[in-house]
Specification:
The structure is a single chain. By secondary structure, the protein is α+β, with helices and mostly antiparallel strands. It has helices at about 1-30, 130-140, and strands at about 45-50, 55, 65-70, 80-85, 95, 100-115, 115-120, 150-155. Strands 1, 2, 3, 4, 5, 6, 7 and 8 form an 8-stranded mixed sheet that branches. The longest helix is centred in the first third of the chain and has 29 residues, at about 1-30. The protein is globular. The model is unreliable at about 10-25 (pLDDT under 50).
């Protein structure tokens, strides 16, 4: 009898673990809206609208719909997004001008300071010069940031209409 009870508990525990894992992966793929940008999670295939070097996150006449690859590596709180930039226009989502292109974005532990994502432990750092953020882009966006060809920047608060 005790063995049957332990088996039932083990099965229930596995089911709960699988359910929680599924929930976490769904959030990473589907996103989680929240009015607080430090809690919000964008969908993995975040739809943006581009026209030359302009980008908006709502349908706008004359703008083309495209997907901004979004890696929700971190789904805890607080979190914010770093954009991955490259000088390679191939496979870029949009240009920010000056020969710089956005390839995608990655959610990391940190908070928004105005429109700027300040990753945890790098609040005062220039993350564009940090090797660890080049590697973060390469690891999470390998199709477009291979060989550390990308660098990161935190100017992503516009998605949440932060002034």
């Amino acid at each position: 009898m005790i063995t049957d009870h332990r088996k039932a508990l083990a099965i229930a525990s596995l089911a709960l673990t699988a359910s929680l894992t599924s929930c976490k992966s769904n959030i990473a793929i589907e996103g989680r809206p929240d009015p607080d940008p430090n809690r919000a999670i964008l969908p993995a295939e975040y739809i943006v609208y581009t026209q030359e070097s302009s980008v908006v996150n709502s349908p706008t006449p004359g703008f083309e719909e495209t997907v901004l690859p979004t890696a929700n590596q971190f789904i805890g709180e607080p979190g914010c997004y770093v954009a991955c930039y490259s000088r390679n226009p191939q496979q870029s989502v949009y240009s920010v001008g000056g020969g710089i292109h956005v390839m995608g974005q990655v959610r990391v532990p940190g908070s928004y300071d105005g429109k700027i994502c300040r990753p945890q432990d790098y609040e005062q750092a220039d993350i564009s010069a940090e090797e660890s953020f080049k590697q973060l882009c390469a690891d999470n966006l390998p199709e477009v940031c291979e060989g550390n060809s990308c660098w990161a920047g935190g100017d992503t608060g516009g998605w949440f209409e932060i002034p």
